[in-house]
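Input sequence (139 aa), recorded before submission:
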Amino acid sequence: MQPFPFVPWVWRDPTWLAERDAADTEDAEGRDERPDTGLIGYEVEATDGRIGEIDEDNALVPADCLMVDTGPWIFGRKVVLPVGTVHRVDHEERKVYVDRTKEQIKNAPEYDPDADAEEHRRRTGDYYTESYRLLPPML
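Predicted structure, token format:
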């Protein structure tokens, strides 16, 4: 049994974004309205190692997702992670930690900018919900 119900499209702790805003010493004028854009360029760490970084095209996906450029480890593919997979955010290290393995992320539905967005969202949500049912997060 999971220690908490998995909700793919909700930040586990929304203060992570507020902490980023509070730590941001740059001039915020002209900054995008989406708070997750402050995470662009952050490295993304799975439970078993680095998987890539938050892509500059993050604004192309809904605000409850993160687009990750995986680089060469899965042939330069971009993946979309629901924000519910984020275990924690470290603004000093500029890292986002997710509680899924590299293999689980590699097997997730591939992002296709030309595909139906709602269908991709449903498939992605179903995939991650099932992964949490089969393998609850390591706390």
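Checked by second reader. Confidence is low (pLDDT under 50) at residues 25-31.
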